[in-house]
User: What shape does this take?
Amino acid sequence: MFANPGGLGKLLQLFGTSRLSKVGEKLSHVKGYGEAGAGLVKATMSGGGKLENIELDKSLSGKNVETIEDLVVHACNLAREDLERKTTEEMMKLKSDPELLGLFQRMMQDMGRDPTRNN
Assistant: This one.
C-alpha cells in the first residue's frame, strides 16, 4: 500500500500535531441542515456524518406514513449535501494555509508519493 511503510509512524506523528488536531476539531463541529415539506421535517447531521436530530412538525400527525418517510429521507439527504458543501468549503480555506500545505507535502513524501503529481 505504501512505498515506504516505515513512513507510517511519521505520518501518524504529523497527524498528531496540534494544528491538524485543530483542523479535525473544527471539521467535527460543522453541521449540515436539511428541510423538506416546507419545513415540516428538519434534519441535522454532525461533522462526522451522523444523523443528530430529526424534527417532525406536529401537523404531520395522522398523515400518510409513506409521505412522512419520503420527507424524512429527503431532509436527511439535504442535510448530508449541506454538510458535504460546508466541509468542502472549510477544506478549501485550508488549502491556502502554508503550514498545513507543508505538512501535507511531507506526509505524501513519507508515503513515497510526489504531491505535485497524480500518482
